[in-house]
Amino acid sequence: MCCLSHCYSFLSLYPLSLLPPATVPPPPPPPLISPSLTALFSSLYTPLAQQLPREPVEWRRSYGRAPKTIHLEANFIQFKEEFLPKEGNKALLTFPFLHIYWTDCCDTGVYKAHVRDDIMRWHGTLRLHGSADWVIIVAETSNAKKKSKTNILPRSTLVDRIRNDFCNKQNDRCVVLLDPLKDSSRSRESWGALLLKLRTLLLKSFTQNLGRFEDDMRKLREKRNLPGWSFCEYFMVQEELAFVFEMLQQFEDALVQYDELDALFTQYVLNYGAGDGANWLGPFCSPVNSWTGLLLRRPIDMESRAAIRRGEASLLELRSYLFCRQCTLLIFLGRPWEVTQRALELMHSCVQELCLLEVPVVEGALDCWVFMSCLEVLHRIEGCCDLAQLEANRSHTVGLWAYATDKLKSLGYLCGLVSENGPQSEELNRTVDLLAGLGDEKPETVHSLQSPYKKLKQALSSVEAFERHYLVSLAMKPGFLRGDSLSARFYRRRDGNVFQRKGDPGRAEVFLQDALRSYLSEGWSLLVTHTRKQMAECQKRMGRTEDYLQTSVLLASDANLTIEERKHFCQEILIFANRSTDIKGKHNTYLLMNAFAQLMQVQFRPSTAVVHSGAALQVELHLRSLMPVAVHLEQLAVSVHFSLKQGGTDGKARETQSRPGTVLFPLGNSSVIPPSWAVAGPSLVEVQDHSPSDPRILSSAGVVCNNTHLVMRHNDSGPSTDMPSRVSPVHVAVDNGVQMLKTRDVTLLPGNNSIAFSSQEPGTYKLCQLCATVGHIQLVLPHISPLVQYDVYSQDPLLSVEPLTDTLLAGLPQRAKVRLETGHYTVKKGDALQLSNIDTMPILTAPSSCFSAAILDSTEGWSRDCLLSIHSSEKVTRISLPPTPSHHVLEFQLEMLCVIPLGCDPPEDLGLNEGARHRLRRSSHPNEPMAIITQRAVEMSVDCPWSIYTTPIFLTFHIPFKARHQLLSAGKRKYIQVCLQNVSGVNFRLTDLRLTETQQGPSLKLQSLNAKTQQLVCSQQSVYCVWDVGWKEDKPACLQCVFSANFAPASEKDPAFHPFNYEFQLERVMTLYTMRAEILPAAGEQHCRSGVLCGLEMSITRLVVPDDDEGKADEEGQTEEFPTTNTKLMYKVTDSSGSWAVCGRSSGLVSMPADANANHRVQVELMPLFSGHLPFPNVNVFQYLPNSASSDSCVENNALPLPVLLDDQVDAASVPRLGSVRRTATGEQRSGGLHMPRLEPFRPGQVFNHSQGRQVLVLPSVDQHVLEMNAT
Hints:
alpha+beta; seven-stranded mixed beta sheet; Ig_TRAPPC10; Trafficking protein particle complex 10; TRAPPC10/Trs130_N; TRAPPC10/Trs130
């Protein structure tokens, strides 16, 4: 912003100057010098001052600093020579940046007589003072033209003269303003050019002068180590720069200047403390006589600034003024929460700087200054933020509230306001001195009822007023500390000390309790110890016996206290226990055991924690006493939950154990966080549910957490029974279980102790609580975590059969281990197992034989051998058992053999009905894959002496081979091929590979084409065998054959071979038709050529008459209406190799006569696509089965000759497709009874293709292009 002033020269002259804004108030309108020019400038002053800052300009600074966009404001003042800067003047606020000379002269004579001389004097004055920033504005108005119409010169001539006289090298220093009072395009254009020129010249001048000012300021700062340098003088210079940046609304740059001043002063104070002092610090070391606090309600504290300029400001005044300016700029920048942070740093640093400079300060003065400053900052923040912002950012003001409360408490101690007897005379005098140092209240806060000045005076006026203000501060702190619970509770202990000194232990304990929770959550062990001592004192004064005893237990085990202090609190407990035993009817006092003793581990004997009924189980507890002296316990009891549910072998301790039979418990530091207070890990227990019918079958499994009350709880959710530091009495719930493991007269020595218990009754026991009794005091551990349990069980016998190999193979003798877990049952002499014999799996034993067996003891880890006898009969195999005690294991082995079922006929135990068996038989054609039987399940029933029910035993045997068969044809000759695949993991040796028929009376001639009589078939490999089939008499309707072989493992030296049989059946094995195909080249060609049509001639010949193969109605759909004289066939030509293109019709129907050796020929056009030896296309023949009387219309009359019949064949599109015939027919039968024909494929071998696998030579096409060549 710049200011415009003017001075009188001549009537037509009007010199002006531009200065920075807001340095002096805007002047009144210029005095009346020239009526026309005064009226002109008066009308232009307001729009010029308003429109100049309207458009932004880009400000580029030196030293590579980033450009910024600013708005230039200016004030216009009348030109006076005393406004021009003198040499050595560093004032930047009153510096005239641009000088303007206004003239509306249009007469040449006036210009020569007066104006030119006045401009020369003005210009000379500027040059004399070194000011080169000026501009001349020529205002041309219509009124001036009318008055000097006779002597007027053209405007260009007058402007050119001014430029020639004053602006030879700076033509832009002369600007013409055309009719500024008129609203025309020329006037607006001229006005815009004037504003642009003023912004440009003003910014250029401002940048140059600002750069010179910064250089001068930098030079002044570099002289700071020279004698006579003054920080106050430098402070005023750099603040000038900050004011300029603030006027330009560059608040960040202005804040940087104050931060640099702050850092510079702090560095000098630190150097002074290190012994390197500066002379100018002397005034700042003077005694502090005023401690009025910060004053943030003024933008600029002119009184403090004047004191700094004079060098009379104290340290607190300098710091207060500097922070006031920083606070104003931070609020302008929208960073009010940074003000709170800087305020805390300021107050702490001021206290330290006063100590470093050794400034004499009245005791309590700094507390008054800090208290008032904190409240002033908080008031300033509340004034610039709304309630939502304050609520969301309360954590930023927590430090100020806490600091203010702390200083108010210090003043209360100092002035005797926090004591039981009230303030004394000395403390009253101190209060008067402190109030005197506050001085008079500032005018800005006189009318405010909640000003820091009034609050402090009221708080120090009386004990009641102090307590009221202090309670208000305490009430404000938790609200502001809502987002920081740790900081909120950190100050609770200090607040508790206040009420403790005032003789109010009830209030003190409330604050101490909150502080203790905070210290426990963070693990501050020393603070926990000191707070507990204070709480014990409060509880003792209030007569809270149970709370006092619980706190005494914690303090007696606290390692931060001395041995004498710990013994003192331990004696307090024992004295109360001994005193209460003498009082009859005295109720028990329940305390938590966490701090009295720690449960280290639980050890079981035996280590499995599982014993059967009648055996003894010993439970040994290892306790670590935290008391400093030996404590005699009248009784130590473990409360257990008893359940009759049998645990079996699953009743083991399921926790992680360092060694078998030992459960460890996590340790904790009793002085900080007892183990039961800490966040416990989840105690997970596996739960399994077995099937009632078969204990080996697992029905469900899961995981259960037994200590969810510890894992899921929140630390600050409220008091719990595991927290002995709570205010209310600890109501410990003692679990009086069905079973109690007790021991009496136990002395716990300091350190580790061992106590043993025993139990023999059957059931499942879970350790729940531990209770130690000392007089009428019972120390209770409410929860034992992780969960510990043991089982005394009664187990039923369990019989199981386990194979000795991974898989059991059918057809070979296999051995299995029989395991009998006796459980609670004792096997007596004469007890036996009776196994029911089944045909599919006989037991391979002699009629009467003895086998060895082993009796194991899992608990003791020993075994012994014995003999058992086996007696077999036709229906039952009886195994006599040796005498075996309870809870032992009896093991022996059996050898058994599973019979391999026949291949095609599924066994009875497969669960197939008759229809399924019939379909399986019908599907036994050469395309049938491997045999369907891959394994065989065998169920064996066992009668046991301990149960009236039969025990089922299930075994699964895997068949080692898979077999398949295939019918091969060569014309009329037939061959049978059998493939035998080894699907097991064992290599076998095969012998006696034979194929026989099963019909009564031999009708076949089977000639083996296998060269080897003995074969080795490895795992996952196959063996193929082929036989030539001939007929002795008439052809049979079907072939029923059995493939048999003997096999034995190849690894055996003296193998014992076992039979393998595969039975299968073949139907419709005769060859009905033969088909020959020939590919004929085009006419006149010897060979076929690619791209040229050629013919495919197919010849279909019937080999047998219909009476033998087709005379009878077929069960698949033939009807009586179907004529037996002719047979309709359908052919289809396809090419799967992509070498041929079928041209025209690719399929059709033919009618075969019923005579033997009847022949039919069909020709199809083909085009080879490539050259070379190409395979013949595929020709498929189907049996066409019409289902209606009108189906003969699909084929031409049989009386027609053969060529006509071939030409008039039905197109393939009129014949339903193979996959859709049945669906279409079925749908139409439902709708209207219309029957559709269908296609029936021949079985393999019924149609023999003589051209299968043939190839034909195809030559490339002839290239008939003419190639012209010219030779020169």
